[in-house]
Amino acid sequence: MTEHSEHSDLAGLQRRLAEFAAARDWQPYHTPKNLVAALSVEASELVEIFQWLTPEESARVMDDPETAHRVRDEVADVLAYLLQLCEVLGIDPLAALSAKIDRNEQRFPAPGAKGTP
What is the CATH number of the domain that holds 48? Predict the structure, then answer.
């Protein structure tokens, strides 16, 4: 496996996260309840970066290297906890997302799509 594919393969990232937790004996703490709480905390830390920015400032947040680094770290934390939660619950996150998009396309048809006024 190439370095790029290892970093962009969801199953590989989930495996790395599981191995990281196992090496530290963290599995007993990685219950669905705890993982959801940690996910919420990390999402809040991402919100905190944007909290008082204007819409224009938020669109340029990645222009500042220090802030961009913080954003990337918090995005990584959110994704890590979400992937760990999916692993514990047996959810395929890509399949879940695909199914949700399918349902949303049915619920919210594009303007001018067949069958819409």
Answer: 1.10.287.1080
Q: Which domain holds residue 41?
A: 27-107
pLDDT in tens, 47-74: 999 999 999 999 999 999 999 999 999 9
CA distances from 95 to 8, 30, 31, 55, 90 (A): 16, 22, 22, 32, 11
How many of the other CB atoms lie within 10 Å of CB of 66?
A: 7
Q: Give the contacts of 62 (CB within 8 A, at least 6 positions apart).
A: 68, 71
The answer to whether residue 94 sits within a structural domain is yes
Q: What is the pTM of this model?
A: 0.84
Q: What residues in the chain have per-residue pLDDT under 50?
A: 1-4
